[in-house]
Amino acid sequence: MPIHTTIDKERNITVHTAMGNLTYEELVQTLELFYRNTEAPENVLWDGRQASLVNLTAAQLKQLGTYTKKIQQEGLAVKGGRRALLAPAAVDYGLARMIGSFKDLLAEDIKFEVRIFRTYQEAIDWLTKPVEGPSASP
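The structure assignment produced for this chain is given below.
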């Protein structure tokens, strides 16, 4: 499987490192394993520096954007937190933005943020940045 999942305990992040031309089935399998693993940190880095989304159809991108809603409807606990999609190549960056947009439009009630990044450091900085807002302590 060209997606390898590790836990960065120091930063408390689940890291999915992808390689090659990804398929919809590989992405769904990784998502299912993530949601079934109650020990996995809720902040996630999808590291696509060595991968591509070009084999995915628009319909599959839309399904990925709403997949978490489907998981929730099936009774699995949906983790909050943040999802950083690292896609440095222009075409993959655009496709990753489509996934994020579908999530925002079709699964807006799911409480996690999705952002797309071109550099590893920007993604890590965002994932490890303290959450701001009314629930954050002063």
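Interim note for the steering committee: Residues 3-128 form a domain with the Transcription Regulator spoIIAA fold (CATH 3.30.750). The mean pLDDT is 84.
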